[in-house]
Design a protein that fits this description.
This protein has about 260 residues and is of the alpha/beta class. The chain has helices spanning about 15-30, 40-50, 70-80, 105-130, 150-170, 190-195, 210, 215-230, 240-250, 250-260, and strands at about 10, 30-35, 55-60, 85-90, 135-140, 175-185, 185-190, 215, 235. The chain has one domain (about 1-260): Rossmann fold, CATH 3.40.50. The chain is built from ten helices and nine strands. The longest helix is centred in the middle third of the chain and has 29 residues, at about 105-130. It starts with 7 loop residues before the first strand and ends in a 6-residue tail after the last helix.
Length: about 260
C-alpha cells in the first residue's frame, strides 16, 4: 500500500485492539506513526516493536480531557513535519440497559466517543487545510447504523459521528481532505472487557461475540484497503454486517431478526 509510504499516521487508541493493529500495519507499509492512548508504557512497548522504532512518536492523550488537543497537534506537526492521516480509533463501549444507566455514564461515553474524537479532528484540521491534503479515518461501528441491546449511549455516540463526519466530508472536499467512516461488527478485541456497565465500571468479561469475531488483523487489512481506495464508508465484519442492508431494504424483517441476537 504505497498510499502510506513516507506519510505520518496519527492513531488514537493505539495501545490495544484495532488501534494497535492499525499502527503495526501502517508502519509495515512505510508510515511514520504517532501513537496515542492513555497507557504510555503500553505505547512504548508497541513503538519498540514497530519497524524503525526511532521514526515513531508517542503522544499520550485522554479523549475525556480534550482542552489541550491543539497543543498536541502543534507538537506532532512540529516533530513529524506533517500529519497525513488521522485514525480516530480511541473510544469506549457499553454493556448496560438504558433504564438503569445513570446519565453521568451516558455523558462520559459521549464525551470520549464523540466530543473527544471531534476535538482532535478540529485540532488537526487547520494543518490539513493548510497543506491541502489529509485523510480522516473514523472508527464507528455497526452500532452506528442501528441500536442494539446494552449499547444505548455507545450507539448514540457512534450515530453522532456519522452525522458530524458526513458533514466534514462535504465541507472539506474543496481542501483536498478525505474522510472514511469504518463500521466494524464483531471483531476479536478486548473492547468488551473495558466496556462500561451501569455502575460506570469495567464490564470485565470477554463477550462471545468478540471472542468469535473477525481476527483484528483481517479487520485492519480491510480498513486500510478502504482507506487506500478513499472510500467514504466501509462495513467490516462477518454475517452481522448484513443487518445494515436488512434494516435499509427490509425493515420489518430486520426488527424480527435483530431482537433474537445475543447482546454479548
Amino acid at each position: 500500500m504505497n498510499y502510506f509510504q513516507g506519510k505520518v499516521a496519527w492513531v488514537t487508541g493505539a495501545s490495544s485492539g484495532i488501534g494497535e493493529e492499525i499502527a503495526r500495519q501502517v508502519a509495515r507499509n512505510g508510515a511514520r506513526v504517532v501513537l496515542s492512548a492513555r497507557n504510555e508504557k503500553a505505547l512504548e512497548k508497541i513503538r519498540l516493536s514497530l519497524p524503525n522504532p526511532e521514526n515513531h512518536l508517542i503522544v499520550p492523550l485522554d479523549l475525556e480531557h480534550s482542552a489541550h488537543f491543539s497543543e498536541l497537534a502543534e507538537k506532532v506537526f512540529s516533530e513529524m513535519g506533517s500529519i497525513d492521516f488521522l485514525f480516530n480509533n480511541g473510544g469506549l463501549s457499553q454493556r448496560s440497559e438504558a433504564s438503569v444507566t445513570p446519565l453521568e455514564v451516558d455523558r462520559r461515553i459521549m464525551e470520549i466517543n464523540f466530543f473527544g474524537n471531534v476535538a482532535l479532528t478540529k485540532a488537526v484540521l487547520p494543518y490539513f487545510q493548510k497543506q491541502k491534503s489529509g485523510h480522516i479515518i473514523v472508527i464507528s461501528s455497526v452500532s452506528g447504523k442501528f441500536g442494539f441491546f446494552l449499547r444505548s449511549a455507545y450507539s448514540a455516540s457512534k450515530h453522532a459521528l456519522h452525522g458530524f463526519y458526513e458533514s466534514v466530508l462535504l465541507e472539506e472536499e474543496k481542501n483536498g481532505i478525505h474522510v472514511t467512516i469504518a463500521c466494524p461488527g464483531k471483531i476479536n478485541t478486548d473492547i468488551s472487557l473495558h466496556a462500561l456497565n451501569e455502575k460506570g465500571t469495567e464490564h470485565g468479561v470477554m463477550d462471545h461475540n468478540q471472542e468469535t469475531g473477525m481476527p483484528v488483523e483481517e479487520c485492519v487489512s480491510q480498513l486500510l484497503s478502504a482507506v487506500n481506495k478513499k472510500k467514504k464508508e466501509v462495513l467490516i465484519g462477518n454475517k452481522e454486517i448484513k443487518a445494515v442492508f436488512l434494516k435499509r431494504f427490509f425493515p420489518k424483517l430486520f426488527w424480527k431478526v435483530i431482537r433474537k441476537q445475543s447482546a454479548t
